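Narrative of accomplishments. A recurring question from our advisory board has been how the design workflow behaves on a single, concrete structure rather than in aggregate. To address it, we present the structure tokens for one chain from the evaluation set, followed by the sequence designed for it. No filtering or post-editing was applied between the two.
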């Protein structure tokens, strides 16, 4: 007599196959999560291991002699033994200083200046030197004439052709200008467009086509917006190429769909009873939106805006198209001056052959990641602080 097997029993072969399939699926999913974490950890460890050395550097103590020859060529202000040690950039401005301050002639000054890039890399263990120069550097280290310290110049100087003098100040200020223009252009236009589409526009084929195209624009490659910015803002409106205004408006075009979509989602999340209650009190549609819907949806709107700005800050391709990849040693002082941004600065350093620029590139990426993570953290905190559950 055949044994009858009950459906749902632990001995049911079909049920056991489903359990085994579920177990395999859970293993696949867990493996995908572990793989993603491994990739992220590898990326961060690789970047940090290459870039942390850029946050400290070596300096040599020199006595600057403001003599007659130094007024023509700044290198002559250094002791002859230290001319191959100190950075060439440390004495480059001496002739100009002596012209502007004649009282410096005949005086001396003891100060600390950066060592040359190759010597800095040797002291960090990144490369070797010629035997004679190596012995000289080692002797100066033992005497305390060369010392290491925090590299404040990395944050207070602009770009330079000498890696030991290169910093991110001009790119950081350029990024602030660009983000300011992006916010000024994209935020009001995006929010007002979303309010019209969500609260006022009739539901017909025209508005549906606009909505579909806005959603599609959010997925368009960023370099396309660069071409659009080049054609519209630079070639048609005559905005100066390489300026923060051109870059900010271009990134504003790219950020616009993100702000519109996030704003519409925030407006749609406001419960209808709030609107109906306001209408019942005799409010017009504009009063309902201004006094009841917008205040409630503002945290969601600001969160979407911050995320859009964070994405814009990390973009490079559209800014290359509008010329913001130029060599900019000095920080811009206006929206129409030539400027560069942090991602473009990192891109420029990544193409330099000197090894010292490798750590500069990685350090720039660390700074950029820190800013982007801070912006995203601010968006999360803002949403959690002001979020309302209905």
């Amino acid at each position: 007599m055949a044994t009858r097997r009950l459906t749902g029993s632990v001995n049911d072969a079909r049920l056991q196959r489903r359990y085994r399939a579920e177990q395999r699926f859970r293993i696949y999913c867990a493996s995908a999560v572990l793989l993603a974490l491994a990739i992220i950890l590898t990326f961060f460890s690789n970047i940090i291991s290459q870039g942390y050395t850029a946050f400290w550097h070596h300096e040599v103590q020199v006595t600057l002699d403001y003599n007659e020859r130094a007024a023509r060529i700044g290198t002559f202000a250094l002791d002859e033994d230290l001319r191959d040690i100190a950075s060439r950039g440390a004495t480059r401005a001496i002739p100009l200083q002596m012209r502007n301050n004649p009282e410096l002639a005949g005086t001396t000054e003891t100060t600390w200046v950066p060592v040359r890039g190759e010597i800095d890399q040797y002291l960090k263990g990144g490369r070797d030197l010629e035997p004679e120069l190596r012995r000289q550097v080692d002797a100066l280290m033992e005497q305390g004439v060369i010392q290491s310290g925090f590299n404040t110049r990395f944050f207070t100087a602009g770009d330079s052709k000498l890696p030991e003098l290169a910093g991110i100040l001009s790119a950081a200020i350029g990024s602030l200008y660009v983000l300011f223009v992006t916010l000024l252009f994209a935020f009001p236009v995006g929010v007002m467009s979303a309010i019209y589409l969500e609260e006022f526009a009739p539901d017909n084929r025209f508005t549906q086509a606009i909505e579909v195209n806005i959603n599609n624009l959010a997925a368009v490659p960023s370099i396309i917006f660069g071409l659009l910015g080049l054609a519209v803002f630079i070639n048609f409106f005559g905005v100066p190429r390489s300026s923060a205004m051109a870059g900010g408006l271009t990134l504003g075009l790219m950020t616009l769909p993100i702000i519109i979509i996030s704003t519409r989602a925030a407006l749609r999340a406001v419960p209808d009873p709030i609107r109906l209650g306001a209408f019942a009190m005799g409010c017009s549609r504009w009063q309902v939106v201004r006094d009841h819907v917008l205040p409630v949806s503002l945290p969601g709107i600001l969160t979407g805006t911050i995320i859009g700005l964070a994405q814009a800050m990390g973009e490079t391709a559209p800014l290359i198209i509008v010329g913001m990849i130029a060599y900019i040693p000095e920080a811009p002082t206006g929206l129409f001056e030539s400027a560069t941004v942090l991602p473009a600065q990192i891109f420029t350093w990544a193409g330099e052959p000197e090894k010292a620029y490798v750590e500069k590139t990685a350090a720039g990426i660390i700074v950029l990641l820190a800013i982007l993570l801070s912006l995203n953290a601010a968006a999360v905190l803002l949403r959690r602080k002001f979020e309302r559950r209905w």
